Amino acid sequence: MTISRKRYPVVIAGGGPTGLALAAELGWRGIECLVVEQGDGSVDFPTTNLVNTRTCEHLRRWGIADEVRYRSRFPSDYPRNYVFVTRMSGHEIARFDHPAAADPGARSPYSPEGRIWVSKPFFDPILQKHVRNLPGVDVRYRTAFESFRQSERSVSVTVVDAETGASSEIDADYLVGCDGGRSNVRRQLGIELQGAFSQGMNVAVLFRSPLLSIARFGPAVQYQIINADIQGAIAAVDGRELWRLNIRGVKPDQVDSLDAAGKLRHALGANVPFEIVSVRPWTGHCVVAERYRDGRVFLAGDAAHLLWPAGGFGMNTGVGDAVDLGWKLTAVLQSWGRPKLLDSYEPERRPIGMRNVQEASEMRSGYDQALQVSPLLDTDTEEGRVLREKARAAILRTRAKEFQNDSPGIELGYSYDDSPICVGDGTPAPPFEQGVYNPTTRPGARAPHVALAGGQSTLDLFGRGFVLLARADNKAEAGPLAAAARQARVPLEVVELNEPEARRIYERRLVLARPDGHVAWRGDEAPADPAAIIERVRGA
């Protein structure tokens, strides 16, 4: 049975973090959208521990960063420590300590925000509540995306109510597949994933244990376990008693017969009590979709890329996709952006997906190759001590950029170097390093954070439209670009940037920032053809 049709500017298939982030971005910009999710919105198995600094900057703009930081069910005073041990009753090998989310020292030196450790069962409900309260955003759970047909002017989407079996035809201007690694949207488009599949079989074990009252290493969000019997990681789920053990290197023919309790005992030690809640196998992939767009249909998040979990890049890369696509869809739907603006989504986000996939894969393989695990590693002997020192050196060499430096190059240093809507100025790109961030206003880069008066950041200036940052003694030079924007009906605000630190870091007298906070153009004087600049950055 088919029931009534309704038209939405955007239909989003999938109500996970990427789909919800896109709905949050569109709703914040005043664009109506529909999210369809075949599940009921609950999280049946906890994943996604790390909300990185860049994602927190987006949460800040939506007004929910502090809710995630202070008011999620994960304790805000729990330190974000990473500890490498032989087992929970064994020896410490290495550690990387970070303050709790509520501690002012947890903020990044490059941002008004900072990383937050929060498990998916606590993060998703905050996003869900926020999105449901946005005017014009409709979220339908227990509603499965089934199929679509697209024309030059619209997309017709068929969804099915899981409770009644009734199907609905929904018309939309655009459809975005945020429906995960097995994306039905991607499959119906015939778009292939490219890269390395099935890089390793793993088993995740959800369990309860009073580890915090027993462990000799103090609280940590992650305990990396290294011994001859098991290699994996124990992650804090609720910061109290619920934990997740990831068992690595399981052979496919061993999954069904795996002794999860035995493996957990190898990770914990002989006298640590535990209760297994659930066991789930999973496979690591490092793949990217060959295309991110087909006509009026787009892919984002896991539908577009699958990453090994090293580094915590996966969900955060998906949120980046949502923000990039969200402002561009808004601009086109509000008619100040031209249709070719949407053509820039793939050349901007696909290279980021490819790089993050590669970085995660290299982090995993480099760590595996550097460690030599011996049964003596866990012994109270001189040979055991020497082996632990060697392991510590290997960990510091291969994992410090991830656990000590928080990967600022990945999180904040990515740049849309080949974007068709950024106006390059011929300057060379700073060298990319995962563990190093070099603030720059080179076109394509994230406009840097500089603290302003009243507790504001330069990042708080960006969002609704374009922002032209101009020094007070050079504000007249901003006039031609502002006039060209008005002529084209492109939202643009001129803001004086007078702080000495801002003048130094922003490098040029004029810097044009896009609605997503990336630099579109910069110069020391008004461009010779300001109208051409505006036409370029709005996708004309």
Can you tag this structure with a few keywords?
540 residues, FAD/NAD(P)-binding domain, eight-stranded mixed β-sheet, 14 helices, 22 strands, globular
CATH class of one domain: Alpha Beta
The CATH homologous superfamily of one domain is named: FAD/NAD(P)-binding domain
CATH topology of one domain: FAD/NAD(P)-binding domain
Percent of residues in helices? 25-40%
Taking the sheet with the most strands, its summary is: 8 strands, mixed
Net shape: globular
Radius of gyration: 24 Å
Briefly note the structural class of the backbone: alpha/beta
N-to-C terminal Cα separation, in Å? 43 Å
Oligomeric state as shown: single chain
DSSP, total strands: 22
Folded structure, characterized:
The protein is of the alpha/beta class. The protein has helices at residues 17-28, 53-62, 65-70, 120-132, 184-189, 211-214, 260-268, 314-333, 345-370, 382-403, 408-412, 479-487, 500-506, 530-537; strands at 2-13, 33-37, 50-51, 82-85, 92-96, 116-117, 137-141, 143-150, 155-161, 167-177, 193-208, 222-226, 231-236, 242-250, 275-289, 293-294, 297-299, 305-306, 466-470, 492-496, 510-513, 519-523. Among the domains are: 2-76 and 115-194 and 287-358, 3-Layer(bba) Sandwich (FAD/NAD(P)-binding domain), CATH 3.50.50.60; 413-537, Glutaredoxin (3-Layer(aba) Sandwich). Strand 9 and strand 10 form a beta hairpin. Helix 1 (17-28) runs parallel beside helix 4 (120-132) and helix 12 crosses helix 14. The longest helix has 26 residues, at 345-370. The two termini are 43 Å apart.
